[in-house]
Here is the input.
Amino acid sequence: MMKLVIGTHSNKIHVLSYSHSSLKLLETTTLEPQPSWIAQSPTHNNLLYINSWENNKLFACKLNHDGSLDVLDTTETGGEGPTHFVVTKDGKAIVVAMYMGGCIAHIPLIPTTGLFSKPSPRPSMILKFPFSPPPTSPNSRQDASHPHHPG
Here is the structure.
């Protein structure tokens, strides 16, 4: 049996059991608003990273055998609307894209635990992308760069 972890735009994370013949809800965990992106640690079994798009945070969570999640650590992302992130292959950092903030941030992890090394990224590790609206659309709804995928 494999576990699937499903993010949402509410405040719930759902854990499902999956086999080739069935799909079943195991557990639902309530987190902060819009935990829509989830990534697994490449170096620590059962450690997941989950965003809160509205509250600009990342969570490090333990995935338990029964499908429940325990929040182990939290960090600020350094920007607004953390949309997508990747964990580096060596498990030493997360690079997160902020859709509303127009930036990406590098968030270091403690190699021995996989937890966040600081409560927020250093300002020197946040890169804001320049933006200027196209001259042909002066009434554009977009007022900043909207990075999506730091992969």
The first strand starts at residue 2 and ends at 6. Residues 65 and 133 are 49 Å apart (CA to CA).
